[in-house]
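FAQ: What does a multi-protein file look like?

Like this. Sequence, then tokens, then the next protein.
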Amino acid sequence: MYQDLKGKTAIVTGSSKGIGQAIALRFGQEEMNVVVNYKGDEDGAEETVQAIQKHGGGAVKVHADVSKEEGIQAIMDTALEHFGTVDVFVNNSGFNGEEALPHEMTLEQWQNVIDVNITGAFLGAKAALAYMMEHDIKGSILNISSVHQEIPRPFNVHYSTSKGGMNMMTKTLALDYAEAGIRINAIAPGTMATESNDDLQDELKKQKQLEKIPMRTFGEPKEIGAAAAFLVSKEAAYITGTTLFVDGGMTLYPSQIND
């Protein structure tokens, strides 16, 4: 537990399920106030809110599309209305998109992924930074990236490009706001044991994926939550512009990933 996080306010986009939900729940365990953002899964968002409150944190849910400025503004407005401040902003919302060879990929398929993964993260960071700068808050922004910011993902040029872009966005933002005391970092998960992970639904795919992970096991969303709590706490006060890989060693031999 990180005592300095108690009572602080965090926004976690896309936190009705999966990794986002795990981050929000860990923040709740730290007794933080959490704004739970969702786009489609209201029941999951409500479940997250109740779990956070059970752990002693404050929580409120808000429906918003992070790829739109008005969506980000709605999230910020909700945080300020209910909790009066924003100390942490987690850009977790992500979209895998449809697999396709690049020459067969439509502009719409490309844009749908870029809009959420890159534009959404930029808009979230921009809004949080503007607020923190205006109110002299030495806060944290955390981007949830992927091992595919380093490892090409076949038939997913849109996704790999978006995560590679997030890597450089994290570094550039960290450089621009270091002097202001605002830290910007990222977490790059490997294969996580989430319901939406197709590689876990088929036994053959599951075994093939495990062969690509040196630790021979999938990660748990709660492990990303633990990493997130550390990175936004004072224990990580001298860390900025860094991506923490939580991947069981998956990036240690990337040439194997595309076999």
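And here is the next protein:
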Amino acid sequence: MTTLTIPDERIKGVSFDADLLTVELMDGRRISTPLAWYPRFAGATIPELQGWEIIGDGDGLHWEQFDEDLSVEGMLRGFPAAGFRTGVKR
């Protein structure tokens, strides 16, 4: 018999380095996305980026200073924020 385990995708913690935003989920997974995906963070320092708060039931992040909200779902699906440009010309 197989037991279905539903992953707990609520946010447990957040960290940053020079290039990445990393979110740790309650189920132990970590999602890393490029900071470049979030144009509102351009030029932000690590201490400024650490001004986040968990929103919803743990499924999103909010930065008051940047007026930015990010969702776990968007990070899992690989969706950058609106306004991100890949540099690829069409």
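Q: Is there any per-entry metadata?
A: Some entries carry free-text notes. For the entry above: DSSP finds two helices and six strands in the chain.
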